[in-house]
């Protein structure tokens, strides 16, 4: 595949992941955005769910590294590392499961906003993985 296209797709995924990191940090901080996370049942997350959001931030930061590495944005050798090659497929699977979970959620925010975001991340990861 064209390296410019892969860089662009990885860049889009990276921007979305950074936005999700910011969203999760806002949840950890106690902002009333809980309708977009964890089933949408709590506007302000409980202490336990805030902890899970903090762990989600860590996962998203790891995802950011893997996406940038596999997309070749971190340097030529990074895209062929075992972590990047395997990790991008793991991310594609995680985002696919997230897409299904969000589409089946009772939360309108998760169905209408988070599910398409997860689907976009799934597609981006598959494209980058196939590069």
Overview of this structure, please?
The chain is built from 4 helices and no strands. The chain is mostly helical and 131 residues long. The longest helix has 26 residues, at 3-28. The chain has helices spanning 3-28, 47-70, 82-103, 108-130.
Features:
131 residues, mainly alpha, single chain, 0% strand, elongated
Order of helices and strands: HHHH
- List how many beta strands DSSP finds: 0
Mean pLDDT: 94
What is the CA-based Rg, rounded? Answer: 15 Å
Give helix % range: over 70%
Uncertain stretches: none
Structural class assignment: mainly alpha
- Strand fraction: under 5%
Number of H- or I-type helical stretches: 4
Distance between the termini: 6 Å
Shape estimate: elongated
| Main sheet characteristics | none
Write the layout of secondary structure elements.
Blueprint: H1 3-28, H2 47-70, H3 82-103, H4 108-130
In short:
By secondary structure, the chain is mainly α. The protein has four helices and no strands.
